[in-house]
Amino acid sequence: MSLRTIVVVGGGPRSLGLVERLGANAATLVPPGERVELHVIDPHPPGGGRIWRAAQSSLLWMNSEAQDVTVFTDASVTCEGPVRPGPSLAQWAAGEEGGSAAAALGPRSFAPRVVQAEYLEWAWRRAVDALPRHVTVHVHADRAVSVEDVGESQRVTLASGPTLLADVVVLAQGYLEQAPGPDEQRLLDEATAHGLTYVPPGHTADLDLGDLRPGEPVVVRGMGLAFVDLFVLLAEGRGGRFTDEGGHLTYHPSGREPVLHVGSRRGVPYHAKLGYEIRSTTDGPAPLRHLTRERLAAVGAGSVTLDYRTQVWPLVVLELAVAHYRRLFEAHPERTHGTFESLERALVGADLSADGLTGAARAYLADPEDLFDIDAIDRPLSAGVDDDTSDADLQRLVVDHVTADLCRRADPERSGDRAVFDTLLGVYAALAELVVAGRLLDEDRVRHVEGRFHGLFSFLASGPPPRRLAELLALHRAGIVRFLGPDLELAVEDGAFVGRSGRREVRARAAVDARLPRPDSSLVTDPLVAGLLSTGQLRSRPVTAADGSTLGAGQLVADPRARAVRADGSVHPLRFLLGPAVSGSAGAGGFSRPGFNGAGFRQNDAVARDLLTVQVVTTALRPDRATTSRSAPIPISHGAGHHTAARDTRTITSSTNRPTTEKDHRHAS
Questions:
Q1: Nearest alpha-carbon partner for 59 in 222, 241, 275
Q2: Could you tell me which residues are beta bridge partners of residue 149?
Q3: Contact 522, 176 (CB under 8 A)
Q4: Handedness of CA 230, 234, 237, 240 (dihedral sign)
Q5: How far is CA 67 from CA 547, 593, 630, in A?
Q6: Where are the beta strands (DSSP E) in 151-231?
Q7: Helix/strand/coil (H, E, C) string of 627-641?
Q8: pTM exceeds 0.85 for this model
Q9: Matching CATH topology for 2-178+520-667 and 194-270+482-513?
Q10: Is 105 helix (H, G, I), strand (E, B) or coil?
Q11: What angle do CA 54, 179, 587 make, to 5 degrees?
């Protein structure tokens, strides 16, 4: 009997999806007489991994409704492998599998992340239980620190000492740990020199916020999801509470809160998630009409590098505008003139600049509020705030903006916003295809796709639950949050942090960069990835913009089949890269929605089929294919016929070379 060994580094949702697809495809793709051993390596419990672990505050919520989260394929998914439907988060919570915390969720609820962790843990157990008998999965509660080619195989070394000899390796670690960038390192050094507190970018659940003192001012740079998590932990997390009296939310301080002075590039928080549903004649996202493969392939026969600003971005804006107006004509014809078809022809024939598109649309609209102006959408304070705007006027403008946003995002009369939201998902996937096909310059990839477009996507489509913005306003009324405005600059001057927007500024002993680090593979500290980068086994090269500014190296690079691209441009045929650390990786933007033919599902299926069929030098089944030192901890092994998944990933010690199997009957499925 021959053996195919697959090692997956990372045990989060992406690995969960990959294991499910391996099981779905193995029955037909693995030839008789071959066994597959799958090793999943992660110090955190499998399914959720580090980001979605159960060990985090229950105050932290997801930013998607429970009905919009699934980790299972459905009939909408166009893949070669068999579809195996499963419950969405909402369906799971309503069923017998969900726990007491999950039982309180409705389809429109925003679940605590600890409940999502339970869902992912359950889905992991289900995926492992469904594996055919010739596929065995071993979970290593450890960290992979290196991978190197050894003949026809790859040797993966674990932090505790054991090594695994693999035919195929998948790197799916999720968000990679990074050293601070130049700006953050400068702030860290200056903070240390002056006895200040600086909290650099990172996942809020992992940050130490203990040095942010009660009552003191704190400059906060960033108004996205990390900022929402921050004010939750510093308000309710420190004993404050909200009451809702007559529909008016009031915050009652505990006295332990600092005062947060917050600003960002835009000066306003991300848009709230939409609070309504719209009926559609078709399931899933509408197909793109202008940013299409055919149109992009026609430029240079599909091989010429595209200029993002002149050839791609105008089509992105056109696509979003057309989606907005199409919904307007279909659902709210009383606010339109003429026909949608004539408007679309006018848009296509117009100068595709933002001004050209808005100018072409005005004659078709009865209500100027229905104009799709991408510049005004991206910078909502640009018309009302300048350097001379007073602090009082700024506070009023931001409060008015957030209040209006909460009203609009709950109003189905503005359902063009939903159409834009859905279309953004398709645009994201289209840009990912251009990236993996190598049709964009590195500067455009790093600055415009990984940078500006991702930022716009997050601003419009990845905002917080509406309740969180209502809480933000309540915190502002209670004096816990003050707004600093757009284009916030953060520096250390005369021994203190200074947050400055225009002529408005605040001085403080502490500052927080409330955001995720900008992906830069040149700063990665994960030992495995850093080692591969240092030897040229992964591609990472500094990107300098045309204006001479340094953009870092951006994300890791893979080919269209998700195989690792080396520094010299060659492809490693047996090493795969998946997830948010990889430029253009499908589905890296978040969990898939049921019925939306999720790109992550399609990529998982294609990669799983590759892992099971790619030519490898298989060997006779023998114990030393997965070797360990005799005194090392040996992870629990989950094999066919006795699949279990422990709630707490534990290790045991064995005196043999073979992975040891231990059942945990308390949590058996």
A1: 241
A2: 154
A3: no
A4: negative
A5: 45, 8, 47
A6: 153-158, 163-166, 168-171, 197-199, 217-221
A7: CCCCCCEEECEECCC
A8: yes
A9: yes
A10: coil
A11: 50
Distance CA(447)–CA(552), nearest Å, equals 10
CB 38 within 8 A of CB 136: yes
Other C-beta atoms within 10 Å of 525: how many? 10
Question: 244: helix, coil or strand?
Answer: strand
Q: How far apart are CA 135 and CA 655, in angstroms?
A: 24
Structural contact between residues 264 and 225, judged by C-beta atoms closer than 8 angstroms: no
Sign of the Cα pseudo-torsion (578, 580, 584, 588, in order): positive
- Each domain of the chain, given as residue ranges in start order, spans 2-178+520-667, 194-270+482-513, 293-461
Q: What is the pLDDT of residues 45-95, one digit of tens each?
A: 999 999 999 999 999 999 999 999 999 999 999 999 999 999 999 999 999
Other residues' Cβ atoms within 10 Å of the Cβ of residue 309 = 11
Residues 117-145 pLDDT 10s: 999 999 999 999 999 999 999 999 999 99
Q: Residues 250-302: pLDDT tens digits? A: 999 999 999 999 999 999 999 999 999 877 655 667 799 999 999 998 887 76
CA nearest neighbour of 88 among 62, 63, 120 = 120
Task: Please state which CATH class domain 194-270+482-513 belongs to.
Answer: alpha beta
Residue listed under structure tokens 């960033």: 222
Condensed to tens digits (0 to 9), the pLDDT of residues 490-513 reads 999 999 999 999 999 999 999 999
Q: In angstroms, rounded to a whole number, what is the distance separating the alpha carbons of residues 193 and 398?
A: 35
| Angle ∠(523,566,152) on CA atoms, nearest 5 | 120
For residue 571, give the 3-state DSSP assignment. Answer: strand
Closest to 616 measured CA to CA, from 155, 164, 5 = 5
Three-class DSSP category at 588: coil
DSSP-derived secondary structure letter, 442? H
Sheet holding 163-166, edge to edge: 144-150, 153-158, 163-166
Q: How confident is the model at residue 211 (pLDDT cuts 50, 70, 90)?
A: very high
Main-chain dihedrals φ then ψ at residue 531, nearest 5 degrees? -65, -45
Distance between CA atoms of residues 288 and 298, nearest Å: 16
What would the two tokens of residue 530 be? 């850093």
- Cα distances from 517 to residues 103, 180, 556, 652, in angstroms, run 35, 8, 15, 36
d(CA 661, CA 514): 43
- Cβ neighbours of residue 424 closer than 8 Å, sequence gap 6 or more: 320, 457, 460, 461
* Cα–Cα distance measured from residue 550 to residue 560, given in angstroms and rounded to the nearest whole number: 27
**Sequence-ordered list of residues with C-beta below 8 angstroms from that of 195, at least 6 positions apart, any chain:** none
Q: Which residue has the tokens 């003192």?
A: 213
Domain spanning 2-178+520-667 has what CATH number? Answer: 3.50.50.60
CA nearest to 266, candidates 485, 502, 516, 511: 485
